[in-house]
Automatic annotation (TrEMBL):
Ranges of residues in domain HTH gntR-type: 10-78
Domain of life from the UniProt record: Bacteria
SUPFAM superfamilies: GntR ligand-binding domain-like (SSF48008), Winged helix' DNA-binding domain (SSF46785)
Protein name (database record): Transcriptional regulator, GntR family
Keywords: DNA-binding, Transcription, Transcription regulation
Amino acid sequence: MSIFKPIKNKRIYQQIVEQIRELIVDGTLSPGDKLMSERAMAEELNVSRASIREAFSVLEMLGLIESRPGEGTFIKEVKEEKVLEPLALILASDTDNIFELIETRKILEVESASLAAKRANEDDIENIKKALDEMKDAISEGRLGDQADVKFHFAIAKATHNQMFVRIMNTISDLLIQAIGEARKKLFEVENNNETLYEQHQQIHESIVSKNPQQARESMYYHLETTRKELKKLV
């Protein structure tokens, strides 16, 4: 008897993600268990291999499974709260919607910058500056600087000293980068965009250093809104 339920037509890969998540939660699937191959699972559920592949990609982003070359796909050892975290599941299932993710970041990060301007200590300021310097070095070397960009926004979230901000930003930032990988490359192909984006981050940093919450809020909003508009032209 199959452990899987019949698949409905709507959002197939999301249903697969949810089923596997539930099987992990109830103990049917345990850490170290090997999942059946894409082909076998596609036949079992009567869906396309593309749907299975997309579901596996989401589950891997969530840290619930891992692919081992030459061996297969296995359930990972994870904390229960990570398996149950609904926000991560929702966002991972909707990574194709770049602009909703950016909109969500605007709601969170604008206030995050303001709080960071109020609460950041010397270590926080140093971490933000370090990420900014890494971004500058990357751009000068012709690289995207995307890793430094993520570090910069994480450092600001941590500077709020609000752990919920940190957890939410961790989820959104990872998924945002995953969703707009190629779009980010296109963004940097536009002349002077790399320098412009660096200057926007620099303005955010200066606002936090000067402990100006309103300026930090405005600088972050301007940065994210400009990013949205530029991506809209390219995607």
